[in-house]
Write a structure and sequence with these properties.
single chain, 132 residues, alpha+beta
Length: 132
């Protein structure tokens, strides 16, 4: 299941609706929803924030292959923004010593079983995997 969304945080409700339809159609345990919704929301909002001049919409795809869920987020005509290179947040430090930024990506890494990044011809593709 795939859909293109306007490059705006206003698209988040429609993205959650896509995930809802997908989970229902594929009969996926709703216990996985929080992790999937958080990961997609975090990455989508980062693309909107860091790539405001991208061309057109951002494509979100969900696919189930047995016990594995694959999520692909594709952004077009943008500069490289590789979330896999963002430094890990040291969550063991006192909160007042933690620099702003990066905590959302930290959670994505913890909730997903895999994250890959590909950049080709000004197209950015983030692929997440979640074992069901």
């Amino acid at each position: 299941m795939r859909e293109s969304f306007e490059r705006s945080v206003r698209s988040l409700d429609a993205i959650v609706a896509l995930t809802d339809r997908f989970f229902e159609a594929e009969r996926i345990d709703p216990g996985h929803r929080f992790a999937v919704d958080l990961a997609i929301e975090e990455l989508f909002t980062n693309l909107v924030k860091h790539q405001p001049d991208g061309a057109g919409g951002i494509l979100v795809s969900l696919e189930r292959n047995g016990d594995r869920l694959t999520i692909e987020i594709r952004d077009f005509d943008v500069d490289r923004f590789d979330p896999t290179t963002i430094e890990e947040v040291d969550v063991d430090r006192p909160i007042e010593q933690i620099e702003p930024g990066g905590l959302g990506l930290h959670l994505v890494r913890r909730f997903m079983d895999g994250i890959r990044y590909r950049y080709r011809n000004r197209t950015s593709t983030i692929t997440l995997t979640k074992n069901l």
